[in-house]
Here is the input.
Amino acid sequence: MPAVSRRSRPPSRLSQPISRYFRLTRSRRPIALRRPAADGMPGHRRPVRSAPHVARSRRHRAVAPDPLHLPEPAAVHTASVSPSRTTQTGAGTAWPSLRNVASRMYFSAARRSRSVIGQDAAATAVARADSVNGVTGEPRIGDVFGEMLRDAYAVHTGTGRRPLAGGRLPRPVIEIIERDDGLVNGAPAAHYLEGPEHWQPYDHRAVDRARGETLDVGVGGGRIARELQARGVPVTGLDTSLGALRVSRHRGVRDLVLGTVDEHAADGRLYDTFLLLGNNLGLFEGRERAPEFLAALAAMARPGAQIVAQGTDPYGTTDPLHTGYHERNRRLGRLGGQLRLRLRYRELGTDWFDYLVCSAAELAELVHGTPWRLVDVDDRDAPYYLAILRLAE
Here is the structure.
């Protein structure tokens, strides 16, 4: 009996359905087959993919790890962070799964209610699901500034996951500032990453004044610290946002500390210059907090140390929305420009906090009786000004 080649042998009973349903064309493109109907739904067509086709699609979908989500870099030091702060920062990693569970309950409840008793019942079911899952319409407390900077850096450089608009184009990253009277303002976050060519004149004059060991309070994305490093000035960046410190580290800032000025004062390090730029004179907060803040800086100050702070005089405006807010503050015993704010980004928000915008005269009153003396005010770019404070002898 002549031998029958494997190629010419007729297909067996077992191999016939396999060859019929999973054969490929010569071009190796997937063949669309119809999936049987299920659960009362009509069947639909799906492609059957060859192994090379699947491999190619998987390679295409492969995404490099986001370097801004790596563990805390070794160069970031923690300044006596309380357990509550650490727990709050770490708790954010569990949120996406909780959010997905809530959304599934939301839509499944709505679908069941619409099929039975209509739209009103659907709204009731949705509200019930929201209450069960803690959906209140309020933002989730988290590292707003860090998340915002990470996304702004990703859009700026293409590094890491970028927020998208419509699923395709990079979405502009906007910092939302909400005031306690209902006023909401927004500003692009990209300015936190700008190089010296885009700075305001007072930023350049402030950096020129830095000397000796320098502490950049509120380092943010590292725009000031990077320039000081380039000039050979020894600089340490301090911030309460771990996300911001990660961005700074990725941009090349070498010495970073996580914590507040009070916490860092316990570390025993000493400085010649303290920088409060980017309107960070606002960290004085008000009459109660300013002496404590200045005392913490004095505890880290070498003899003859200086503070270079940038502020804004808020009283040149004629906008009744702002002048009315100033008057309300004064009636409450607060400084006119003592703002009560919270920051928002995507689903995140901060707690409400005080942030001071004051005149140079008000600053002089706040400094009086502290270890510091106000020795110079540079208001060439009014209403913005630089205030120079010197440690008393």
In short: The first strand starts at residue 31 and ends at 34. The two ends are 114 Å apart (CA to CA). The domain at 191-391 is CATH 3.40.50.150 (Rossmann fold).
